[in-house]
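Look over this today:
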Amino acid sequence: MLRDSKSGSLIIAQFWHIPWPNHEIFRTMPWAEEMLDGLLANDLLGFHLRYDCQNFIEAVDRVVEAKVNQPEFEITRAGHSTLIRPFPISIDYEEHDSLARSPSVEAEIKRWEKKLRLQPGNLIGIGIDRIDYTKGIPERLRAVDALLRECPDLCERLVFVQIGVPSRVHLHPYKQLNDEIEALVESINWRWATEAWRPVIYLREQHSQKEMMALHRMASFCVVNSLHDGMNLVAKEYVASRFDTEGVLILSRFTGASREFTDALLVNPFSVEETAQAMKQALEMPAEERTRRMQKMREVVAANNIYRWAGKFLSALLRFDFAEAPQPAATRSHGAILV
């Protein structure tokens, strides 16, 4: 549509933020060919991971008629070539680090302590997600329950705070998910709570960036156990907030972030027992090891920040524009669109 509406030369690039499925899943889509035709109108198509690029190339190879140059990650269809490239997205590390150190975040920590009615010696675990069936929230809560069964000494000490940002509440599957989460929270608290303590605090509401950073700063561990995720920036935000190099990240192997954060405690999110054991390991981890792991992850986010992501994407786009254009760029009208 962009090409049809623009006279002259137009360079188009698109970044696909969610995972691209394997062929067995993608082929069930009734509009598979139309989807691929639309995306192949791009000159440059970016995904988070090389794995996603390979899945997309396989989909093209098996669904439409096209020339696939596998070594170069290039596809030619109807005379038009599209470059396929991985660009793992990130966050503004410097901004997060600076804000996390600010007095305003310190003030939010004090507010959370009052709101959550925390007592001296409480250990905090957190999960921060949209209420979505890909995020593994029920599996996470079951892991908290399993942890308390195995480690009864954590009773009246561990407080797990689950932030659930409402999402697509008008759709029946999401309403069912929210009902399941609330039922799990009620069941776990009924089983373990005392008059002065609840193990799970579920807050189904949005919070500001400063409030989230304050929770990051307070948490002994953060659980990101997505069942399927392109990257997951919550994991990177948690790491960027921990300038004290404290805290432990428990991370699903099925997130794009797990390719970068090899010093997180990596788990299979479908295994409640494995996630519970990771929580236990996080709480028992020696301070020296916590610091070493967090420092390495912070170095990864600092080196691969959002500006480097954008720079790599735009550099690839500009090289295509000037190096591969059929006519000299200086002698033709041209434009660039990045979606």
User: Anything to note?
Assistant: Confidence is low (pLDDT under 50) at residues 322-334. The chain has two domains: 2-88+306-338, 93-303.
